[in-house]
Design goal:
This protein has 240 residues and is mainly α. Helices cover 60% and strands 12% of the residues. The protein is built from 9 helices and 5 strands; from the N terminus they run E-E-H-E-E-H-H-H-H-H-H-H-H-E. It has helices at 30-47, 66-79, 100-119, 127-141, 145-150, 154-178, 184-193, 195-198, 203-233; strands at 2-9, 12-19, 55-59, 62-65, 236-238. Strands 4-3-5 form a 3-stranded antiparallel β-sheet. Strands 1-2 form a two-stranded antiparallel sheet. Strand 3 and strand 4 form a beta hairpin. Helix 3 packs across helix 6, helix 4 (127-141) crosses helix 6 (154-178) and helix 7 packs across helix 9 (203-233).
Length: 240
């Protein structure tokens, strides 16, 4: 009797085919071989990670999956680690976790920004920069169980890393073009409206701090408006 068995793990699939002999027909020579094959199959089945992926967002016709968000989040935290990060563990996220929605939003935003950069033929990542970034990711994820369970291909790692670098580069470019000038009058008006907060501190001593704060606030407002424009342009949908 023959039997086909499939082991599916993420993007790869292995098909095992073997033959059983009835106990009555099996010789002493064949029994060990049959047990060995069955043992190998059980071992493979037990070690195969079950990757559950679901649709969590969409950019036009491009469908974003939870698995892609998980991979992209790991890459992001390796290339741009937060200042308070401790240890060398990977940042894990999944549907239902506290910060998963913000991770989905970040990847959706990254996707539309890279698309916009491509449409303007800017934000092209140099091959050397990309190779260096991918190598950094490969080194950081080596031997990590969580990464192995996600089963990302090298093509995916390169694609998501390139997208991230392109988006970061374009945002930096846009930030420079959006930077405004805050006048002394603007700063003084803000100071007068917030006298209670500043107390006895003189305007002269904090003028430059106020101007920097207002410039940053102005920039964030402009970036936020730009992001909203991109979301409408590329028909972004967050399903979380």
């Amino acid at each position: 009797m023959s039997q086909n068995l499939s082991v599916v793990g993420g993007a790869s699939e292995m098909e095992l085919r073997f033959f059983f002999l009835d106990n009555e027909q099996a010789s002493g020579h064949n029994r060990p071989m049959r047990l060995l094959i069955v043992s190998i199959f059980i071992s493979l089945q037990a070690s195969a990670a079950t990757v559950i992926s679901e649709t969590v967002g969409q950019v036009g016709d491009y469908v974003l999956t939870s698995r892609e968000v998980q991979i992209a989040t790991v890459i992001d935290n390796i290339l741009y680690p937060p200042k308070d990060k401790k240890g060398n563990g990977l940042v894990e996220t999944a549907p239902g976790s506290k910060e998963f929605r913000s991770h989905v939003t970040a990847v959706l935003l990254e996707t539309v920004v890279s698309m916009e950069a491509e449409s303007f033929n800017v934000g092209v990542v140099a091959e050397g920069e990309l190779s260096e970034a991918v190598s950094k990711v490969d080194k950081a994820v080596a031997g990590k169980t969580y990464w192995s369970q996600l089963q990302p291909t090298q093509a995916e790692v390169k694609k998501f890393t390139n997208r991230k670098l392109a988006a970061k580069s374009f945002i930096k470019f846009k930030t420079g073009s959006m930077a405004g000038i805050v006048s002394d009058l603007d700063a003084f008006e803000y100071y007068e409206k917030n006298r209670v907060k500043f107390g006895s501190t003189s305007f002269k001593s904090i003028k430059e701090n106020i101007k920097s704060f207002l410039a940053q606030q102005q920039l964030e407002d402009r970036l936020r408006a730009w992001f909203e424009l991109l979301k409408r342009k590329y028909k972004v949908r967050n399903f979380i």
